[in-house]
Amino acid sequence: MRAAIFRNGDLVADTIPDPKPVDGQVLVKTLACGICGSDLHAFHHADKMMEVAKRSGSEFGMDTKRDIVFGHEFVGEIIEHGPNTQKTLKAGTRVCSVPITVTVAGEKARVHPVGYSNEMPGGFAEHMALSEMLLLEVPNGLATEQAALTEPMAVGWHAVEKARLTPEDIPVVIGCGPVGLAVIAGLKIKGVHPIIASDFSPARRALAEKMGADIVLDPAKSSPYKRWTDEATPEGFDPTSLMTILGMGPKMRPGVFFECVGVPGIIQQMLEGTPRGARIVVVGVCMEPDKFEPFFGINKEINMQFVLGYTPEEFALTLHHLAEGKIDGAPLVTGRVGVEGVKQAFKDLANPEIHAKILVEPWR
């Protein structure tokens, strides 16, 4: 089969053997697979990524000296059932899955992260072997390109769920790349308004509006923290009055701030900018060393929640959010390439004014 392969630090299009489904697996034809920011990071910093993952206690690992086929935001079509499968979904069914698959040797099971495994090719290849028990049928009528957004949208939904939102909260999303846009989509479903979003990129700000943000700011011109203060302050609020100090007067609405950038320095900026009692949800994945001054968080009694991925239930619910029209991901898909175009697509994604999400269609 044809695949885009991470090999010797480069991305090459080549032919590799088709995967053979083992017990409990099915063979699928890859219809579409999104390129994720973590794919870009793995391409540029694979060894460091593995080193940090190991130090943090993760069992996630891959040998960067061997071939790896990236791609974990996929939708495929069942073409063959492997041994000891239930065949509950027939051949020809379009499916999504959380990007893991399981192989069993004797009494020992091994979990493989699809797209970050030397043994299990990801969605930048024409075929994948997936665990039957994890497959979800794409609801009738949902476009393949929308179904391929299930995984990244689930990341945003998980972050929103972890935020423990109340109707009184005013959410602020810092960074409107694919992760921030997924968070905005989740906030819209939750019905918590106004949703404030901030990004330097005009193209990303436009997408934030399309995904459901009520107030979209250029941080070079307007502070998202100042705008939150304006929106959260009730009529008659006076921070210098005795009634307010005693907690008996009008109260400001709570703030929940989503960090969706993932670069050093952002957490410190947020600790400085957010109000007392704020909740910060860290969704952006920063793989570099960072530093911040804890006293800002202590003095303001800030609650900070780090999040990663999603649960299988959240993944399944996200697929139905897309199928029911609660999330319209069509504006996010800005390009499509075959396996030969993956390397150039990785370069093109560096410019946020050109692309948001590029889909790899291996049979293209």
SSE layout and pairing:
Blueprint: E1 2-7, E2 10-15, E3 25-34, H1 37-55, E4 73-81, E5 94-97, E6 100-105, E7 108-113, E8 127-131, E9 135-137, H2 144-147, H3 150-162, E10 170-174, H4 178-190, E11 196-198, H5 202-211, E12 215-217, H6 224-232, H7 242-245, E13 255-259, H8 266-273, E14 279-282, H9 294-300, E15 303-306, H10 312-323, E16 333-337, H11 342-348, E17 357-360
Parallel strand pairs: 10-11, 10-13, 11-12, 13-14, 14-15, 16-17
Antiparallel strand pairs: 1-2, 3-4, 3-8, 3-17, 4-5, 5-9, 6-7
Helix pairs in contact: 3-4, 3-10, 4-5
The CATH class of the largest domain, by name, is Alpha Beta
Query: How many helices does DSSP assign?
Result: 11
**CATH homologous superfamily of the largest domain, by name?**
Medium-chain alcohol dehydrogenases, catalytic domain
The tally of domains stands at: 2
In terms of quaternary structure, the protein is: single chain
Class based on secondary structure composition and strand pairing: alpha/beta
- Percent range for helical residues? 25-40%
**Largest beta sheet, briefly?**
7 strands, mixed
SSE pattern, N- to C-terminal: EEEHEEEEEEHHEHEHEHHEHEHEHEHE
Uncertain segments are none
Shape: elongated
Tally of DSSP β-strands: 17
- The radius of gyration over CA amounts to 22 Å
The CATH architecture of the largest domain can be named as: Alpha-Beta Complex
User: Overall pLDDT, averaged?
Assistant: 94
Strand residue content: 15-25%
Calculate the terminal CA-CA distance, rounded to whole Å: 13 Å
CATH topology of the largest domain: Quinone Oxidoreductase, Chain A, domain 1
